[in-house]
Amino acid sequence: GAVVSQHPSWVICKSGTSVKIECRSLDFQATTMFWYRQFPKQSLMLMATSNEGSKATYEQGVEKDKFLINHASLTLSTLTVTSAHPEDSSFYICSARIAGVVNEQFFGPGTRLTVL
Amino acid sequence: LAKTTQPISMDSYEGQEVNITCSHNNIATNDYITWYQQFPSQGPRFIIQGYKTKVTNEVASLFIPADRKSSTLSLPRVSLSDTAVYYCLVRGNNAGNMLTFGGGTRLMVKP
Q: Which residues fall within 8 angstroms of residue A6, CB to CB, at 6 or more apart?
């Protein structure tokens, strides 16, 4: 149980285009989802916290207008990278917390974004 | 948020026991200690979590001394497939607490 999926697993896009990444909790409800970014050989950096039905909370230095987060249901959060540039190329990982259980987060498999 | 310090990398051989120690001198009373494993191009995977003393599951053991300022992840008889990055995190038990990843320890298991 407690499986989190991401789609797509990888995506290549042209500079200036927008890319949407989906994060789904497959067998549980997630009131809170988190979005991370990871550059090669580096650790995960939290980008934002997404709560179902409310606006996301972004970490310092993360542009909310560039990284649009929507958490419209208890099983789905989306991250849209708008007007992507090569420096946005990274590994994007989401995690989800089971509703009512604060101690565990379950991570998705990640999405590799390459912007040409 | 309590900051964690771990060795950047470790080498081991198949069949050996590996102990990775993490320092968290500023851990708060309500903080838990959690370890994650990450393989290349995959999301982190939960290994073990504890608050004090010793916790053991089918994958690893976690040793936490009385002062809780450090913790040691013990992997018994590692195999090549245990080559990964291991992250030590401390976080509170409140709904608003998120995970903050440190640098992690890159474990290389050699044949």
A: A21, A22, A23, A24, A92, A93, A94, A108, A109, A110, A111, B43
> B84-101 b/e with 16+ CB inside 10 Å = b?
bbbbbbbbbeeeebbbbb
Residues of B in Cβ contact (< 8 Å) with A106: 46
| A67 to A45, A84, B39, B100: CA distances (angstroms) | 14, 10, 26, 20
Does B93 touch chain A if contact means CB atoms closer than 8 Å? yes
Residue of B nearest to A10 (CA): B41
For A92, which residue in chain B has the nearest alpha carbon? Answer: B43
Q: How far is CA B68 from the centre of its chain?
A: 14
Q: How confident is the model over B30-82, as pLDDT tens digits? A: 889 999 999 999 999 999 999 999 999 999 999 999 999 999 999 999 999 99
> pLDDT tens across B70-111, in order?
999 999 999 999 999 999 998 876 655 678 888 899 999 999
Determine contact: A99 vs chain B, CB below 8 A: no
Nearest to B98 among A6, A49, A110 (CB): A49
Q: Which two tokens stand for residue B76?
A: 């018994």
Judge whether A4 is closer than 8 Å to chain B, CB to CB.
yes
Cα of B96 to nearest chain A Cα, Å = 8
